[in-house]
């Protein structure tokens, strides 16, 4: 079973930009890479560092803490199949961007947020958008 969490208006993250949002008690980083949208958990699977400021080369993100690299398309380290990021599917529904959460992705409900349709809305972890 999965559910959708609103993340704002589609197109608000321009190519080359990224944005952090707060969803169900976790920080998610949204990337626009050449028009393709990718969403990952902000926590590095190696030791929990924030990945939101990692250097991005194509679709490969380098963790700023120890330099492990992860392919945003698969969540995996390129070529080795080692550690894997938590990735989330993103869809556009009625001109709004939504994050698709599977049951195992969901953190315990915190009772915050929601839109007029009764669907939860993502909240920004940080107020800035980064290139
Ligand atoms: S915490 Fe990311 S590589 Fe170590």
Give an account of the 3D structure:
This protein has 131 residues and is mainly beta. It has a single domain, classed as Rieske [2Fe-2S] iron-sulphur domain (Rieske Iron-sulfur Protein, 3-layer Sandwich). 0% of the residues lie in helices and 40% in strands. It has no helices and 10 strands. The protein is globular. The site of FE2/S2 (inorganic) cluster has 8 residues, from loops. GO terms for molecular function: 2 iron, 2 sulfur cluster binding; metal ion binding. InterPro entries: Rieske_2Fe-2S, Rieske_2Fe-2S_sf. Belongs to the bacterial ring-hydroxylating dioxygenase ferredoxin component family.
Keywords, please?
single chain; 131 residues; mainly beta; Rieske Iron-sulfur Protein; seven-stranded antiparallel β-sheet; three-stranded antiparallel β-sheet; disordered C terminus; binds FE2/S2 (inorganic) cluster
Report, as a whole number of angstroms, the end-to-end distance.
Answer: 34 Å
Number of helices: 0
Per CATH, the superfamily is: Rieske [2Fe-2S] iron-sulphur domain
Q: Based on CA inertia axes, which overall geometry fits? A: globular
* CATH top level class name: Mainly Beta
Average pLDDT, all residues: 80
